[in-house]
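User: Hey, my collaborator sent me this sequence without any context and asked if I could get a structure. I don't really work with proteins. Can you help?
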Amino acid sequence: MSNEVICHRVYKSINKPLTIWSVERRLFFLALIVGAATFNFFGSLVSGLAMFAALYVFARWATATDPQILRILLNSSRFKSRYDPAKSTELILRRTSGD
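Assistant: No problem. I've predicted the 3D structure and written it out in structure-token form, which is a compact way to encode the shape of the chain:
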């Protein structure tokens, strides 16, 4: 056994998310498909472009905030919900007639 140190190069591009126009590629194609569907449904180019632009801005914000947000949102329905102090549950108090 040799005590030689082995160094492996890791390039930054491996750890970067795949993006198109600074948007994660899946979110970009989702915005593109919804924009095209809006165009086909309403028959208006302006409505299709407006929907694409709105979803593109949202996707760009989501990618800048956390590139893995889409994966987290899609997987969140599989796991049990935990205690959330912001959610309030109804508390029912009953008076006993023992007095």
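In plain terms: The chain has a mean pLDDT of 82. You can pass these tokens on to your collaborator as they are.
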